[in-house]
Amino acid sequence: MNLQNPKKFKMMIDQARDVAINVLRPISRKYDKAEHAYPKELDMLASLIDGMNEGGEGINAGAAGAGKRGDTDNEGIRNGTNMSTALGIIEMCYGDTGLLLSMPRQGLGNSAIAAVANDEQLERFKGTWAAMAITEPGCGSDSAAIRTTATKDGDDYILNGEKIFVTSGERADSVVVWATLDRKLGRAAIKSFVVPKGTPGMKVERLEHKLGIKASDTAVISFIDCRVPAENLLGNAEVDVAKGFAGVMETFDNTRPLVAAMAIGCAKASLERIKEIFKDQLDPDYSTPYLHASNLTAQIYRMEAEWEAARLLMLKATWMADNKKPNSKEASIAKAKAGRVGNEITLKCVELAASVGYNEDELLEKWARDSKILDIFEGTQQIQQLIIARRELGKSSSELK
Amino acid sequence: MTSMINKAQGLGLSLITRLAGSDVLDQLKLRKFVEKSLYQGSKAGFRALTQTQKAFKPKQISQQRLPRQQKNLFDLSLTEEQQMTSEAMSQFAQEVLLGLAHDADQAAQFPESLWQYVEDLGLNYYALPEALGGVATEQNIVSNVLIAEKLAEGDFSLTAGLLSTFSVINAITRWGSAEVQSMYLPCFAEDADITATFAVQEATPAFNPYTLKTKASLENDQYFIDGEKTLVILGDLADVFLVSADFNGEPDMFVVQSNETISIKNTPAMGLKAAETATLRFNHTPALRLGATDFDYTAFLDLGNLMWCAMAVGTCEAVKTYCIKYANERTAFGEPISHRQSVAFMIADMAIEIDAMRMLILNAASLAESGKPFHREAYLAHLLCAEKSMKIGTDGVQILGGHGFTKEHPVERWYRDLRATAILQSGLHA
Predict the structure, then answer these.
(1) Does the keyword Flavoprotein apply (chain A) (predicted)?
(2) Of A286, B3, B35, B177, whose CA is between 20 and 30 Å from B409?
(3) Shortest Cα distance, chain B CAs vs residue A314, angstroms
(4) Both B85 and B119 in a single domain?
(5) Residue B388: pLDDT band by 50, 70, 90 thresholds?
(6) A4 CB near a chain B CB, below 8 Å?
């Protein structure tokens, strides 16, 4: 039993932290102000990260590293890519969550490709920067109800529909689009398609203006008779009613812990800053019993306890993925805990710093805006609670709605 | 009641038989542990309840310290030994403790029948170093908190009682000077009847374990204790007490034997009833100083708090299990109440926070047994467990509504017991 970060990731974590402090933080406010401007500084950083990854255990700054389940030939306990990716993300989001989400070739679509693509597709889509398009104007959390259709036509599928909230939808090389082969067959008929940028019929309609993570572009994309080769359908084209949604949902088991890692990284920024601001009033040795600590100190200790809990739950979910243990519930637990705790901490830190935290001179107010999305996307707090409750109570989605 | 005890005794034997037939026993040096506990268990005869003063015969031994564990990878898996122990404790909790808990709480009495199991479970041998006939070859703090968690799935108060002697042995093994160890460890190894407990809480609002009213004094190389301690688990039955006291302005730990300088008053509390909490008054009681040069009072407190935290997690598991069953069976407005998000989300939150508490405890315990600093982690674990376990306790009653408020259901007992998590400082030891 050991819950400390493995030593072999130390260098990677240190590198990611250096990047966070020296590359991301200096441009953090700039791209919070210049919403929709492309953070060109990231191109060089992305190439650097690609290079490090070619050489072995580098930073997986985004979602691309997740989904690689543990090697089958390896005996014993593994600390693998799911965990190292999450540990890298914590540090990068400690720098800036919006910029992390804008990292080229590290989109959530890459995660979907890693999780469900076959070997031929993995090879063909290697190096692509893939965004993820699930949400529609009329469906958010109930992703089984999507209306975008994919109609087979010869060797192609023809996509029709509208997708919203596509992170990096404008900047990415391609978009992984969820569409249904037959609405009558429900969730089992939902498949994902890789649609390269510039495919006729696909159009970025507009970019959202948001509360936070402004450095990251969030696109509305329409698909009108958009023709995609059949081999761009990820995974199996058969509609397996028995297996249903499972194929697509598997992606979430890998990506939810990563979003949890983002919330943990974002909250870490606030927590470290608030401890710096109040360093003269805090007891670094934790030698004052909780009941005797000042209100300020007690609130900071409490946040720290919640933050540690979220961090360890997230690591547990990635550890399970690396060791091929089913982790759906644990992924949801990590996401639910980190999402709520990350938001609570960043908001509380603004409150504790008062006007200093609320003013734009500090980044505390920015982190409090950025953290909100992390309790929403990749499954809201309430969706995670539903998933966990169904598992605990042994209820189906038709019973516990 | 009698049939319950028969059933319980049957289980104790079947548990041991199952353990004895297991292949992993030999691999893990566990056979010695089980056989030893069996031998000791059958050797110990009828146990008189009236507390008689024990004569402790010291046997010179060299100072014992268990080695630290080495760790490298992040790893949440249990060793085979931990799995087996957890399973055995869990089964014992379900089939023995859960059944005894209600009556023990009502009678505010630790059931006599449980004493046999303390021996059958061989807890003391877990704590004792190999050199003294136990099975501990290295620090097993993770295993100890797992034992506490699993037992507390059966009952919080009974677990406190079951683990008090075990905890004192842990504390003496970890911190005791050669003199203290020579005096007590061989006796614990040879006489399974000896019981021990902690006298550490004081009746001070917002009690601070670093500011003690109980005083220790030194006269002609002999320590004496004066003062009052409360919430002492099984205080009336113990032969040995670990007492915290202020010595020259610093908090420290002392060992005293039950004798006529100590007076006892039963002090029933909101919960922990089956642990027969008592207030002890020490009137110039002769004492030994527990620690040697490596004594660390803060670590001593932390290793106690972790046990209470782990027990809170176990009891919260019991709350959750009970609420799931109830919410699935109870109907309102034509369907099970578990079909309502307001109820279902309370249960989801229980699952989230139980695992959250567990992670913090295991992290602190794992650091501790590898000899690394763990005070921050233990502090944060205690803080989180204090808050979240009480939340789960109160939600447990809420889910059952008015029924939860009655003694027909155990949730009100768990509610009362879980309030203790935030309050207790030390009192057990991992």
Answers:
(1) yes
(2) B3
(3) 10
(4) yes
(5) very high
(6) yes
